[in-house]
Automatic annotation (TrEMBL):
<dbReference type="InterPro" id="IPR051906">
    <property type="entry name" value="TolC-like"/>
</dbReference>
<keyword id="KW-0472">Membrane</keyword>
<dbReference type="GO" id="GO:0015288">
    <property type="term" value="F:porin activity"/>
</dbReference>
<protein>
    <submittedName>
        <fullName>Outer membrane protein TolC</fullName>
    </submittedName>
</protein>
<keyword id="KW-0813">Transport</keyword>
<dbReference type="GO" id="GO:0009279">
    <property type="term" value="C:cell outer membrane"/>
</dbReference>
<dbReference type="Pfam" id="PF02321">
    <property type="entry name" value="OEP"/>
</dbReference>
<dbReference type="InterPro" id="IPR003423">
    <property type="entry name" value="OMP_efflux"/>
</dbReference>
<comment type="similarity">
    <text>Belongs to the outer membrane factor (OMF) (TC 1.B.17) family.</text>
</comment>
<keyword id="KW-1134">Transmembrane beta strand</keyword>
<keyword id="KW-0998">Cell outer membrane</keyword>
<dbReference type="GO" id="GO:1990281">
    <property type="term" value="C:efflux pump complex"/>
</dbReference>
<dbReference type="GO" id="GO:0015562">
    <property type="term" value="F:efflux transmembrane transporter activity"/>
</dbReference>
<keyword id="KW-0812">Transmembrane</keyword>
Length: 446
């Protein structure tokens, strides 16, 4: 018995450990984008919106298909209504009346109705509107995927930026610590002034503080990326792409030669969908002036009795059936339909104006995005050159400082210039990646 309990305890602990174990993921940028498009919370809901639109389309379609409904009704006339009839019918005095009751205490009815819409202009417009609604949902899904892709690229770059910054700051800190240690020894020998040591201490403290801050930022950026990927924040996420290699693959001068076809842009397509929906709204208002025609067939049974015995073999049921056709013709609405039609016309004109505005805005955005991307490529080359110069200047000042030819202030200035050049170069690499993503989004590039 003790052995069984011990084995059960081991199994239970093993299950808990398996549940508590964090999952680990490794992604390239491409893999991260693919994962996000499938698992991002907004993407999941966008897929659901499309499915809901498909169901809505079918719901609209069924309104013009045969409808069958059944009904069962029961009535207990616990106090039947009385009517007055002339008493002379029963041999009574003329001018007098006798109260009588008609009907039975219990009534039951069961019926089946088959109805069919034969013609309705609103229904035909409704079918077109359902298709447009589905198209709007599908375009919204595409737009969501494009936005997710761009945000994931930005977030992925931010994590890489933080990781590279940590690596550089750790290297800078190590160099500073060694320089400070050497300077202290020189100061102890009385060869330099104390302020040289103090100046290096200030620089080291600043670099250490910046390093700790970037470490915290890296955690936040990584968690933000997990959220975009639809992952649990407790899971581990490792990025396998490197910032410099990723930047190199994103320098594409041919992209700057691409022509902008505004009709391929998803925002323009959504604007067209809005215009189409307004056109259908106008058709709907006009269709309300048309007649509608429908038909219905009823089949049923009635049963009556003063005792409740409808489910016994002796109960007699009486069947009935009928066919009905209804024609509704709108004649006069006190100009209400005309007012609604005019409103729909105004809404259509507004949508056309908005579509034109969207087209012009997109053209302007394209020119700006192309300019920004071109500038980011130029800035990458400039910042790389500046970094090389800053490294040489800092190295020369290190040598001069060790040889006693310059002060710690000169060295600190050169170091600060180097640190700034390092961050500028890192940011330039991220900018190339992000600006290309923005341009590709406008061009509808996958």
């Amino acid at each position: 018995m003790k052995n069984k309990f011990f084995l059960f305890a081991l199994m239970f602990v093993g299950i808990l450990q398996a549940q508590d174990k964090k999952q680990s993921y490794s992604y390239t940028l491409k893999e991260a984008i693919e994962h996000a498009i499938q698992n991002n919370y907004s993407a999941i809901n966008a897929n659901r919106d499309v499915e809901a639109a498909k169901k809505k389309k079918w719901e609209t379609t069924t309104m013009g298909l045969p409808q069958i409904n059944g009904s069962v009704g029961y009535q207990d006339n616990f106090k039947l209504q009385k009517s007055l009839i002339p008493a002379e019918f029963f041999g009574g005095a003329p001018g007098t009346f006798v109260p009588v009751t008609f009907g039975t205490k219990h009534n039951m009815n069961s019926a089946v109705t088959l109805s069919q819409l034969i013609f309705d202009g609103s229904y035909l417009v409704g079918l077109q509107s359902a298709k447009t609604y589905l198209k709007i949902s599908e375009n919204a899904k595409i737009k969501t995927a494009q936005e997710i892709k761009e945000i994931v690229i930005n977030s992925y770059g931010n994590v890489l930026l933080a990781e590279e910054s940590i690596s550089i700051l750790q290297k800078n800190k190590g160099i500073l610590e060694k320089t400070l240690s050497d300077t202290r020894e020189i100061y102890k020998n009385g060869l330099i002034e104390e302020e040289n040591v103090e100046q290096l201490q200030i620089t080291l403290a600043s670099v250490t503080s910046a390093l700790e801050n970037v470490k915290r930022q890296r955690i936040i950026a990584n968690d933000m990326l997990k959220l975009l990927l639809g992952m649990d924040l407790s899971n581990e996420l490792k990025l396998t792409d490197k910032l410099e290699a990723l930047t190199t693959t994103n320098v594409d001068l041919n992209l700057l030669k691409e022509e902008f076809n505004v009709t391929n842009n998803i925002d323009y397509q959504i604007g067209q969908n809005v215009k189409t929906s307004k056109e259908l709204l106008l058709k709907l208002e006009k269709s309300k002036a048309l007649p509608s025609l429908g038909a219905a067939v009823n089949f049923g049974y009635n049963a009556f009795g003063n005792d409740f015995k409808f489910f016994t073999p002796s109960q007699q049921w009486f069947n009935y059936s009928n066919l009905g056709i209804s024609l509704n013709v709108p004649l006069f609405s006190s100009l209400g339909r005309s007012a609604r039609t005019q409103q729909a016309k105004i809404a259509l004109e507004q949508s056309r104006t908005q579509l034109t505005e969207t087209e012009q805005k997109l053209k302007l955005q394209f020119e700006k995005a192309k300019s920004d991307y071109e500038f980011s490529i130029e800035q990458l080359a400039t910042s790389k050159s500046n970094l090389s110069l800053a490294e040489r200047i800092e190295n020369k000042n290190q040598i001069k400082f060790k040889e006693g030819l310059s002060s710690s202030f000169d060295l600190t200035k050169a170091q600060e210039q180097l640190y700034s050049a390092q961050q500028s170069y890192l940011q330039a690499m991220v900018d190339v990646i992000n600006k290309k993503a923005s341009l590709e989004k406008l061009l509808n590039k996958n």
